[in-house]
Design goal:
Strand content of chain A: 5-15%
Mean pLDDT of chain A: 88
Oligomer: homodimer
Strand order of the largest sheet of chain A: 1-3-2
Structural class of chain A: mainly alpha
Order of helices and strands of chain A: HHHEHHEEH
Number of helices of chain A: 6
CATH superfamily of the largest domain in chain A: Winged helix-like DNA-binding domain superfamily/Winged helix DNA-binding domain
Radius of gyration of chain A: 20 Å
Largest interface: A-B, 79 and 79 residues
Number of strands of chain A: 3
Low-confidence stretches of chain A: 1-8
Distance between the termini of chain A: 31 Å
Helix content of chain A: 55-70%
Shape of chain A: globular
Largest sheet of chain A: 3 strands, antiparallel
CATH class of the largest domain in chain A: Mainly Alpha
DNA sequence: CTGCATCCGACGGGATACTG
DNA sequence: CAGTATCCCGTCGGATGCAG
């Protein structure tokens, strides 16, 4: 049957949509660099962005407050990740020139809208966790 | 105003939800290794998983078919990524013992349900692309 | 055709120490 | 308090070659 496809797994609506989007990518060249999806996934995929965004979802926080909130997060990575997030417009930085300078970070409107699809993904991850674990045991052990 | 938060950006429902989830993480220790979200993001965040899943969203495909569909994807990375995806139960592998062996990969039910939140994220990425680009120009240039 | 092994460069990210 | 600079190592991933 050659490359005949479109069956096997019931093609849910989301699948069809993604398949469609993907078809578009191949045709008009996804130069990688300016691929919107890649840009977003490069952030959400790294080690700390999600955690930091999630922390800020509860309200604005100061540098050291975030540091205290997230275990194992170093100053170095916090600084760097905050810079990246700010550059992409997900968060905003406000400096208060007090005696010991204090800096506050908060979600922007853009960052806020990202929370929605992100929450959906998080929900999926938690819901599917048992099934994924089971699949791993099956794959590794048997 | 100290740590007083819960304002600045209108706390959308998704934000509140994520903030809630995050609070839970900190309390019951997110050992990283068995964190469901981390498990999922480790996949979606890597270089090829999404592309491959998206390709399979259009229907089952053979090894070399996927290779041809995705530019710049090497055999090495395709093999490795397929293994990881199979291990987590996102895709299924079927071997047809023909003269030159042919192997078909297809989305599982679990993989299919992942497409939904993933499509939402992709949609968000494409919709927000201009705004992100603008933020970058603002940050870099001015 | 499908997959594994090896080599190797690039990059993420941790530890530590120093500055305004 | 909020960064910056340096070192260093583990992993990701590309190139190539070999094997069922």
């Amino acid at each position: 049957m050659g490359q005949g496809d479109a069956e096997g797994t019931a093609p849910a609506p989301a699948q069809a949509e993604l398949a469609q989007t993907f078809a578009g990518w191949r045709t008009k060249a996804f130069e990688a660099a300016r691929c919107p999806v890649r840009n977003v996934l490069d952030r959400t995929g790294d080690k700390w962005s999600i955690l930091i965004l999630t922390a800020l979802a509860g309200g604005p926080h100061r540098f050291s407050a975030i540091l205290r909130l997230i275990p194992d997060l170093s100053k170095r990575m916090l600084t760097q990740t905050l810079r990246d997030l700010e550059r992409d417009g997900y968060i905003a930085r406000t400096v208060y020139p007090t005696k010991p300078p204090s800096v506050e970070y908060r979600l922007t409107a853009l960052g806020g809208t990202l929370m929605e699809p992100l929450a959906a993904l998080v929900r999926w991850a938690e819901r599917s966790h048992p099934e994924i674990e089971a699949a791993r045991v099956r794959f590794d052990g048997g």
